[in-house]
Design a protein that fits this description.
This protein has about 200 residues and is mainly alpha-helical. Helices cover about 80% and strands about 0% of the residues.
Length: about 200
């Protein structure tokens, strides 16, 4: 890599106060691959931030315009989940490109975004199918378990079908996020960002 290209990479890399502690942890636990551990930690932080964007967007959509009630409750859950997921993907791509993998520049941003989006679409498809098919039974399963704890804060609370659907959606979302995060890290590391050492 020429000095000009190296300078260009440095200009587009995002720096933040977490860089030094992450690098220190990576050196300490990374063995002979501290840079890979550093990338994983950054990817996980970006993923956690994306999960916050995802969950807050999903919660807001369900509480406002896409309430999971009849009619078309399954469609509304799928639409809300998809919008939330896409908001997180956009954030995650930006942070991963400029913070986690600033040295990955052998491909254009357009190509990397296409690869990143393809991987995320596969994750989205699996996640959406999972959430759409499991939120109802998960809500029915979890509401009786959590109802005593809910009633500590809201005595006399009687859950509605909508509350059960929301609880089930968030529980299914949590499982989906964990599975998709592992998929995203591995697929992106070995396809989208495979040009880094």
């Amino acid at each position: 890599m020429s000095q000009t290209e190296s300078m260009k990479i440095r200009r587009v890399a995002v720096r933040n106060p977490l860089d030094a502690p992450i690098a220190a942890v990576a050196r300490r636990v990374g063995g002979n691959r501290p840079k890979e551990v550093e990338r994983f930690i950054k990817f996980a932080i970006v993923g956690a931030f994306g999960a916050v964007i995802d969950s807050v967007t999903l919660f807001i959509l369900q509480a406002t315009v896409l309430v999971p009630l009849e009619p078309n409750k399954d469609l509304k859950v799928a639409i809300a989940s998809t919008i939330a997921f896409l908001a997180a993907v956009l954030s995650n791509f930006t942070w991963n490109r400029y913070w986690t993998y600033p040295d990955s520049r052998s491909r254009s941003m357009r190509r990397q975004m296409a690869q990143f989006t393809t991987i995320n679409l596969i994750g989205w498809l699996g996640r959406t199918i999972w959430i759409s098919t499991s939120y109802h039974w998960l809500g029915a399963l979890l509401m009786p378990v959590l109802l005593p704890e809910i009633q500590i804060f809201r005595p006399g609370y009687v859950p509605s079908a909508s509350a059960e659907a929301k609880l089930g959606t968030m529980a299914a979302w949590l499982v989906g996020v964990c599975v998709v995060m592992v998929w995203n890290f591995l697929a992106n590391r070995y396809w989208t960002y495979n040009d880094v050492e």
